Amino acid sequence: MRLQTFPGGVHPHDEKHFSASAPITKAPLPAKVAIHLSQHIGSPSTPVVSVGDEVLTGQLIAEASGFVSLNQHASISGKVTAIDRFPHPCGTSSLAIQITGDGQDKWVELVDEPNFMDLPVSEMKNRIAAAGICGMGGAGFPTFVKLSPPEDKPIDTVILNGVECEPFLTSDYRLMKEKAKDIITGLKLIMKIVNARKGYIGIEANKPDVIKEMEKLLSSEANLDVVGLKLRYPQGAEKQLIYAATKRKVPAGGLPMAVGVVVQNVGTAFAVYEAIRYKKPLIERIISITGSPVAKPQNLLARIGTPFAELVEFCGGTKERVGKIISGGPMMGFALPSLDAGMGKGSSGLVLMNEKQARLNEEGNCLRCARCVDVCPMNLLPSMIAAAVKYKNLDMAVQAGLNDCMKCGSCAYVCPAQIKLVQWIDTGKIRYAEAQRAKK
Amino acid sequence: MKDKYIVSSAPHLHDKTTTKNVMWNVVIALSPALVFAVYYWGFRALLLTLLGAVSAVVTEALIQKLRRVPVTVSDGSAFLTGMLLSYNINAGAPWWMPIMGSVFAIAVGKQVFGGLGNNPVNPALLGRAFLLASWPSLMTSGWLKPKSGALSGIADPDAIAMNLKALSPKAFDLVTGATPLKVVQTLRDSSFVASINADAGEGIDLANRIFTNITEMDALKNLFWGNIGGCIGEVSAFALLLGAAYLLYKNIIEWRIPLFYIGTVFVLSFIFGPIKGAGFSPMLPFFHIFAGGLMLGAFFMATDYTTSPLTKNGRIIFAIGCGLLTVVIRFVGGYPEGVSYSILFMNVMTPLIDKLTMPKAFGRVKK
């Protein structure tokens, strides 16, 4: 197979060996969960329960507050004990519904639709919306919105993102290994919904077993293909993946639908399958608990809202001092101040680092070595953006690409002067937004 | 008390490259040239190089102390500047030359602008320009003879020397006391050619013979290995290519600048070689890429991060500019060698080149 890729990018060690061979294991039911009202892109959900209410597993507890919003469901059965601010998996704190479990895990009624492939598209979309599914790769864009492109933007291609280019993480890998058929069914459902004729599953070359298995399963399907991708970060970034698979370039500031493509994470496709077939809401997902301090790194099927501390405990706790906790992958994830936060719908992993790995380097002078320029997958001048932000020259920052940056972190990864380029660019984005607001 | 964890912005991984190991790797890549220099001229070459490098480090440390900023000499950048400066000096130069050059390079070329990463031009080249302007005779004459003797840049030294001494003492002085580039430049000067022999026809004939001899395959071999008169670090093209290969392998320098720089010189000396001068040889382009400081300049000076363009297209424009200027200076300029001035000139153009070659973001269309 000819491996596809994109221009730019870096080669971090993939570090997947910690948890790659651990099969998906059910995590024990948490005693308490905090379901955040904002774990997606869009407006926060509106609670439909109040403190004291009894809820079943899978029961709607907060509903979408607009078109770009999301339903939230109870992930355990029990009693609503608080609606308050709780630590968020992004490191901040925000409003969440706390449920104290009764330990019985009493579910709402699910179905098993025999002819689910033949349901009308509108019903499929309704089930996806009702199930509260958002992109499970991390950004968390509501899935039914993504699957409802405007009439004038016909979609011809659906790409499933099984790249998992973030080092350490193996949740998508395990899901593809263990649920390949269901993922393919999910892909077919998504293609049906957007009326696409071509489907791809993009998988990076460090998962040869999954590539082989998927190829075998797809060998009889004329319009479905596996795209083998070179091991290179950020291969899983939406625009880069689309380019690698179809050689189409999504216009700057535009969405994939501008080039007739919809991209969905493999986890999302699995959730779509479960929602349409079983009407099962998104209340659990696979999360990799990994990193060198974890005693027994694992891929857990855990309920949304389970505190990270319980998951780490279930993996045997830690065997060395922890220096840093990262929610998500190490390239784009968030460093957490504690293990108190609970996992969200976008939590694909929790990476622990020991004190040595977590050591911060001091920023030096920029050498203008242009390594950041050479690796930038968006073809920007990261060092120039950072310098322009530092000296408060927003025009120059925009000219060098401030608004095109997706913050993949490749530049900061290679910078020999250890300049925190992403942090500077983030600062620039915030200042730019402020300046735009002030203009209005 | 609960454990405390480090909270910082992503990415949480970093590759192993640091400023320090970049700089010291360049020092490593420069060392084969020093080995050759010691072979040809003895430990004098090593001593001058160390004097230059150490005085650069001391100067940087003193100025950083005065500026009350952290002393960062361990990053190797000052050592590298001092080393490169010394490489631009004749092995026969007095001991204080590399010191003067290094002090100037670091103080005026680098620290005045705020230190590492802020200098507009390559400090080592600025130091060399300073020495050349201050002590022109010391910098351009009295070339120490390499190990194989006076005429080692000439293919057939015995025959030529015997004839030359008898035919024209002036021509003999030229080929024994200069670098190959100087010889070629002087031979292009018609008044010199007229003066080497009373018989004008014989003079031209002699000049042509020397020229042919110096661009012959055997002479090119001497150029390649470094068995010629020249500066400490630039004589052996072989040693410099060895170091360059190491830097390319380590991803410390990028191929665009050296390729386009050397390529431009090669092509232009092929095109313009016959136009002016005493005769023409098909080997002339090879002579021009191996002679003088081109290898050192193209791989180690023009690729200096701070003073070359950030953008990929900019680097190509920069390198072609360097090559063009080098050829212009060598063929029509007053100096036999143009590498250092052409790089300095293009260094100054760098901000402009960056501005004009701002890349288009992925997915952006031309306006």
Report on this structure.
The complex is a heterodimer of chains A (440) and B (367). By secondary structure, chain A is α/β, with parallel strands linked by helices. Chain A is built from 14 helices and 17 strands. Chain A folds into 2 domains: 1-26 and 106-359, NADH-ubiquinone oxidoreductase 51kDa subunit (Rossmann fold), CATH 3.40.50; 371-439, no CATH class. In chain A, the strands form 4 sheets. Chain A has a 6-stranded mixed beta sheet with strand order 1-14-13-17-15-16. In chain A, helix 4 packs across helix 7 and helix 11 (382-390) crosses helix 14 (421-439). The model of chain A has no long low-confidence stretch (mean pLDDT 94). Chain B folds into 3 domains: 19-140, no CATH class; 157-218, no CATH class; 253-356, no CATH class. In chain B, 62% of the residues lie in helices and 0% in strands. In chain B, helix 4 (96-107) packs across helix 5 (123-134) and helix 14 runs antiparallel to helix 15 (284-290). At the A-B interface, strand 15, strand 16, helix 10, helix 13 and helix 14 of A face helix 1 of B.
Provide key terms for this protein.
heterodimer; A: 440 residues; alpha/beta; Rossmann fold; 2 domains; 14 helices; globular; B: 367 residues; mainly alpha; 18 helices
Summarize the structure.
The complex is a heterodimer of chains A (440) and B (367). Chain A is of the alpha/beta class and 440 residues long. Helix content of chain A is 28%, strand content 20%.
